[in-house]
Amino acid sequence: MNFKLRELRKSKGLNQSELAELVGVTTRVVGAWERRNTQITLEDAVSVSAALGCTPNDLCGWYDAHPRDGEPDAHTPEGELLRCYRASTPDRRERILGTARDSALLSGEDAERDMAEGECA
């Protein structure tokens, strides 16, 4: 995660004490968040985001645009999988995710085995 608290706080012209007061925490807590000594809770991240006039996504540096803005083409295997997932019931979604996780794990194990065999050859 590219946590952007310090950058966003400074862009608003606030010092740690001012932000702490707006959020209802101590200056030490804000400093610990910025140094990544303490993880910020979801509740506090929402409060900080409101105080800074940004979204939690902005605060965490997750993405500039929603992932759906760059969705895969529906005619690709990835797009078909996404379409099927979204059209499924919650129970079926869990099954789809379980299958995908199992497949990814097996693929990773196969890759590790292939690398180990290649290194020994």
Ordered list of secondary-structure elements with their pairings:
Layout: H1 5-11, H2 16-23, H3 27-35, H4 42-52, H5 56-60, H6 77-87, H7 90-120
How would you describe this structure in keywords?
121 residues; mainly alpha; 7 helices; 0% strand
Describe the structure in your own words.
With 121 residues, the protein is mainly α. It is built from 7 helices and no strands. It has helices at residues 5-11, 16-23, 27-35, 42-52, 56-60, 77-87, 90-120. α2 packs across α3 (27-35). The chain is elongated and about 55 Å long. The model has no long low-confidence stretch (mean pLDDT 84).
Question: Helical stretch count?
Answer: 7
Give the DSSP E fraction (strand runs of 2 or more residues).
Answer: under 5%
Overall mean confidence score, pLDDT: 84
Order of helix and strand elements from N to C terminus: HHHHHHH
What characterizes the major β-sheet?
A: none
Helix content: 55-70%
State the secondary-structure class. Answer: mainly alpha
Task: Measure the end-to-end span.
Answer: 38 Å
Quaternary structure state of the chains depicted:
single chain
Rounded Rg? 21 Å
Q: Spans of 5+ residues with little confidence (pLDDT < 50)?
A: none
Q: What is the strand tally?
A: 0
Categorize the overall geometry. Answer: elongated
